[in-house]
Amino acid sequence: MAAAGTGSRRRAAYLATAMGVVHSVLALVSFWLLHDAPKPGAPDTDVVAYYSGGQGRTVLIVGIYLLPLSAIAFIWFTVALRMWISQHGHPEHFLFSNLQLVAGIVYAALLLISGAAFSVDSAVAALGDGPVDPESARAFPQFGRMLAVMLDSRMAAIFVMTTAGIGRSTKVLPSWFVWLSYPLGLLLLFGASLETEFALIFPAWILVLAVLLTLRVRHAGEPRPGDLVTGT
């Protein structure tokens, strides 16, 4: 029945919206909390005090809860978004669809690894019985930044541009959003920065996409009684 198809599309869109918002909020909060972590040139005493105290426990929470949950929400978001697009009946671009899926999986995996890198020294201080090594406490957060900010941004770029390509070919996304996504994807692909602010671009893009999904579902016309197809 047409009504069943419409209901299925709505559920997929609302699930994608919810998971996209959860991923974006958790990622934004995580990078905001990690912004004050000691820089590579910080004195040893400051580094040890940071990861051994309350701020270190905050980093641990980010690494073992917030970033992993953000990655899980992104996986749900990717699957629900693909379900919503596939149920519109428009032919998908096979190459873009598969690239989008692979990029999303790698993005989530890198986010998980970066969470472990950010929090390993805090875990040693809070869960183990060893002291914080200042050199390790400098190296692992930088490794986490490399993964979460620079390398993960490359995967985010592929996800942005393939989603834009799918949106253009299937007409399920507004043209202005599609064409703005391409330069944003190029920025994520070729940008070079270890500042955590750079990692905020992709979650912000997902928030906009989530809003567009919600608006599209709300503005979609309800099926009329005469449009329903019943079995005989």
Distance between the termini: 12 Å
Helix percent band: over 70%
Number-wise, the strands total 0
Question: Which H/E pattern describes the elements?
Answer: HHHHHHH
Number of domains: 1
- Unreliable stretches covering 5 or more consecutive residues: 221-232
What structural class do you assign from the helix and strand content?
mainly alpha
The rounded Rg comes to 21 Å
How would you portray this structure in words?
- The chain is mostly helical and about 230 residues long.
- It has one domain.
- Helix 1 runs antiparallel to helix 7 and helix 2 crosses helix 5.
- It is elongated, with a radius of gyration of 21 Å.
Lay out the secondary structure.
Blueprint: H1 2-34, H2 44-52, H3 54-86, H4 94-127, H5 134-170, H6 175-190, H7 201-219
Helix pairs in contact: 1-3, 1-7, 2-3, 2-5, 3-4, 4-5, 5-6, 6-7
Explain briefly what this protein structure is:
Helices cover 78% and strands 0% of the residues. By secondary structure, it is mostly helical.
Any descriptors?
mainly alpha, 0% strand, 232 residues
